[in-house]
Design brief:
CATH architecture: Up-down Bundle
Distance between the termini: 53 Å
Number of strands: 3
Number of helices: 5
Strand order of the largest sheet: 1-2-3
Radius of gyration: 20 Å
Shape: elongated
Largest sheet: 3 strands, antiparallel
């Protein structure tokens, strides 16, 4: 259970008089509260970007047409499967920092830098769009990285570096299909 105003966990215990006592358990992982909040806020933006890219990639997987259908259909499936797993990892890191992870379409829409696709683009435009969107996710992760580094938050730094590496490689592979 959590106190909504400051996201502190509430521990329910029974007193010797059989009354339920609510006490807050502070998070003490060596990162001050304000830094944990700033990191979690940045990771929330990364989560929103990742989820939005997951949805778009899945949409493109379903709707791609043309001579590269099989190649792109398979490639997009690999990408959205990886993104789906990443969403969970990012959300769990936010929770480990003591904050609630955003989880609604409205919150993702307000936090994300990824825009919805208009209609069903051509296969080539799908590729271009996904290159740009993967690069957007890299930029979001790169913005959060110095905040996590300053707090000496190794797990968040590792997560951010992993996400940048994956999205840079994905953008490169997609970009190579346009040459």
């Amino acid at each position: 259970m959590y106190r909504q105003e400051d996201n502190c966990p509430i521990i329910l215990t029974v007193s010797p008089f059989h009354h339920i006592v609510r006490t807050a358990m502070d998070i003490n992982i060596g990162i001050p509260n304000d830094q944990r909040k700033r990191i979690a806020d940045g990771l929330s933006r990364l989560l929103a970007d990742t989820y939005s890219l997951f949805l778009k990639t899945h949409n493109f997987h379903w709707n791609v047409t043309g001579p590269l259908f099989n190649t792109l259909h398979t490639m997009f499936e690999t990408q959205y499967t990886e993104l789906f797993a990443a969403v969970d990892e990012i959300a769990e890191r936010i929770r480990a920092l003591g904050e609630f992870a955003p989880g609604s379409f409205a919150s993702f829409a307000s936090l994300s830098s990824i825009t919805d696709a208009k209609g069903i683009p051509s296969a080539t435009d799908m590729i271009r769009t996904l290159v740009q969107d993967n690069e957007t996710v890299v930029r979001t992760a790169r913005e959060v990285l110095p905040i996590a580094e300053e707090a000496n938050d190794g797990p968040s730094v590792d997560l951010l570096n992993e996400r940048m590496q994956i999205h840079e490689k994905t953008a490169w592979m997609l970009r190579s299909m346009l040459d």
